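User: I'll paste a sequence; please echo it back and then give the predicted structure.

Assistant: Echoing your sequence first, then the prediction.
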Amino acid sequence: MFMNLSEVFTSENGILEAQFSMVGQPVEIAGQKYQAVSEVPIRITATHVSEGKAHVEGQGTVTYELHCDRCLEIVQHEVVLDFALDVYAPGTVPEDAEADDQIYMEGYQLNVKALIDSEIMMQWPMKVLCKPECKGICMKCGKNLNYGECGCDTFVPNPRMAAIKDIFNANKEV
């Protein structure tokens, strides 16, 4: 997905508006691909600032289905996009310009997919939970503990006490 900004760079009153959809465009995060399930279309507006410089703004919402990190239930996560950056035409980039903003430009074309993917990654959650008090799954039987206890013995002995347990077991009368 590209947006041609050549007219915006050269026209004094240049404004270019476009809408983009992320449905069907997977985003890859940490080696895993995620598909958008719904969205409010992402509106991008490029406005002429000066000769060879444009200001790009974008807004939209994209919803993804993720798995809860504790119980593996499907959770819908909404990413709200609201970004702004200045981009430059080839050969007009000043020395004090943000180098990160220029990586989205390929000649006079703005790489919208790369820009939106980057914004989504910046807002991606470190941990996804279905609810803050999620209890997870049983380590023995795999039952989702949010729906009730499973009855498994969940006692985990302290490994630091294993040596003492061996001493007691060795001195037991049979």
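The chain has two domains: 2-123, 135-174. The first strand starts at residue 2 and ends at 4.
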